């Protein structure tokens, strides 16, 4: 992913790039690693969660390696432009964050477990950046798909904020809200670090445990 600076101010709906009515590229049918369907419908009883932690390449690998994960996918979320492509997102004029869809079996891994991974594996205090990746697309996000997920996310934020404060770190800037539309990223972004095992991964936590 790019180390070059992108806009750090969100566009307005009026100033955002115009969208389109459908994808301008094909979405792969299956996960390269897990062999499961990338798109819904998913098995009954499974839950869907969305996380943004900077560059989605490393984030997707982080989650697909966990037990109880059915499928993952890289995508764009939280902006104004409908069906954006990567080049448009990189301009900062769509408003989207790079996020990862996580479909999981709650009998094998809990949403709380996913939240712990989320908080500990990136810096949620850094605003519109993660490490060298600067821009609105790299902001920290938790997009929830149920009232219970929203409540757990908000509670875990308060808990982790206390841990960060005790370590002398700043305020969490993570955007937590009900999930907006998720747009699958292009095929070459899906399971990128399986395609390119030594490829770029910008994940770096603060070193503070989420307890």
UniProtKB/TrEMBL annotation:
Domain called Peptide methionine sulphoxide reductase MsrA: residue spans: 49-201
Record-level GO BP terms: cellular response to oxidative stress
One GO cellular component term: cytoplasm
Gene Ontology MF annotations: peptide-methionine (S)-S-oxide reductase activity
Catalytic activity, EC: 1.8.4.11
Catalytic activity: L-methionyl-[protein] + [thioredoxin]-disulfide + H2O = L-methionyl-(S)-S-oxide-[protein] + [thioredoxin]-dithiol; [thioredoxin]-disulfide + L-methionine + H2O = L-methionine (S)-S-oxide + [thioredoxin]-dithiol
Alphabetized Pfam families for the sequence: PMSR
Record bears the keyword tRNA processing: no
Entry keywords, A to Z: Oxidoreductase
Stated family: Belongs to the MsrA Met sulfoxide reductase family.
Entry-linked HAMAP family: MsrA
Protein name as annotated: peptide-methionine (S)-S-oxide reductase
């Amino acid at each position: 992913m790019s180390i070059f600076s992108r806009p750090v101010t969100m566009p307005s709906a009026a100033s955002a790039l115009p969208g389109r009515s459908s994808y301008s590229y094909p979405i792969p049918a299956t996960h390269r690693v897990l062999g499961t369907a990338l798109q819904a419908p998913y098995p009954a009883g499974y839950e869907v969660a969305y996380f943004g932690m900077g560059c989605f390449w490393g984030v997707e690998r982080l989650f697909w390696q966990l037990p109880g994960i059915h499928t993952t996918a890289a995508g764009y979320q939280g902006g104004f432009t409908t069906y954006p492509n990567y080049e448009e997102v990189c301009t900062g004029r769509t408003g989207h964050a790079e996020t990862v869809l996580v479909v999981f079996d709650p009998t094998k891994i809990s949403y709380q477990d996913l939240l712990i991974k989320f908080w500990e594996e990136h810096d949620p205090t850094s605003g519109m950046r993660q490490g060298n990746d600067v821009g609105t697309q790299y902001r920290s996000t938790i997009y929830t798909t149920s009232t219970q997920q929203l409540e757990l996310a908000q509670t875990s934020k308060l808990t982790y904020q206390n841990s960060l404060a005790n370590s002398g770190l700043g305020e969490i800037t993570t955007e937590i809200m009900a999930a907006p539309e998720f747009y699958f990223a292009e095929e070459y972004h899906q399971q990128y670090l399986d395609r390119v095992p030594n490829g770029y991964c910008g994940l770096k936590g603060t070193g503070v445990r989420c307890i």
